[in-house]
Amino acid sequence: MFVGFTQSPLRCFLCQVQSLTILPFTPLSLPLFPVGDALATSSAARSSATSASVCQVFVVRFAVDWCPAGTSGRMVIYLSTPKTDKVSEDGANDKLKFGLSSMQGWRATMEDAHSALLDLDNDTASFGVFDGHGGKVVAKFCAKYLHREVLHTEAYAAGDLGAAVHRAYLRMDEMMRGQRGWRELQALGDKINQFTGITEGLIWSPKASDSNDRHDDWAFEEGPHSDFTGPNCGSTACVALVRNRQLVVANAGDSRCVISRNGQAYNLSRDHKPELEAERERIQSAGGYIKMGHVNGSLNLSRAIGDMELKQNKFLSPDKQILTANPDINIVELCDDDEFIVLACDGIWDCMSSQQLVDFIREHINTEESLSAVCERVLDRCLAPSTMGGEGCDNMTMILVQFKKPFAQVKDASDAEQLTGDAGCSETHGAEENGSDKQI
Fold it and tell me: How much is the pLDDT for 217?
């Protein structure tokens, strides 16, 4: 059978085929070959598939997307069996410890990336989850560069973490333009197997030493891609900075950060969906539209880094575009009631509510030998038994950060008097119900 694509001016829609016949011992249902900026099915392969006897029936979901820098024309499908190998990591200092885990799952490509740095500077730790769409190159770019840009902003030098991370988010789109941006994306781009069409590559995160690398001022470069306007693929970005008792959370997209305060889950970020009133108003004011929950019929997020095709209005500032990388910033004063935070992509949140995840972590955090082992349990818990249901079939990435307490260290009697009454948590004014979850 021949599979066709429905295509908007911006990107191909996600298509779904309920049954597909395949030949025995073939890696894909039909051989795929790159043709220009898309993947095409060979007519010879189609005719051979039609004449052959049917051996199996699969549910196959796929999407074709175009993204410059060597990631164009990729077909994303579900594997016949999930890839459950995990990339996990643990770390600790005198203030906190963390564990993380990533798993490709049912998807034929891994488009998540993450960063976990205990030593952004001597007083600050940085954690981030980046969920790519249309390819993982933008997610990898953010994991490599976003924390560096935070560190080298004027706001960071002045002690304003919120303003620093806000500037760094918008800076990502700026850096991915032009010859230098094209060159860096090309270097980070995934290799596509010409015979299977499947993206090859490993889960990726920066090394701890990357935070202290010499700062790159990203000077303008002349070249054949000097007019490159940026990638048409993109990524969510959910980042948490911890400095002493201050927690700063920035978010663009539908990855999420949650804090457990005495066992109660509070959302520290908001999922950016086109249906939200403020998001819808911005999209429509910029000349965009929402179709079936998708921005311009294309993307089911209203904020993301990358996706430059939706940010082309030269008369609007970055925060007013149809799609924006402008993050929500949430600053929280930590207290001894705060147990841990979780940053995770929607592959987790589609399967568990914030409170369900907090409850699950609290059930296992004292019995597992490491925090990464707790994360691995969560990933296994969320993995679907098959691709029939939809949920539990996405890439999954999760970072668990546990605080060492007490936060306030009393050095002398005068400090003790000053801290009296300050060790407890402030009230969570304006906490809103969001399904079974609360928002700070």
Answer: 65
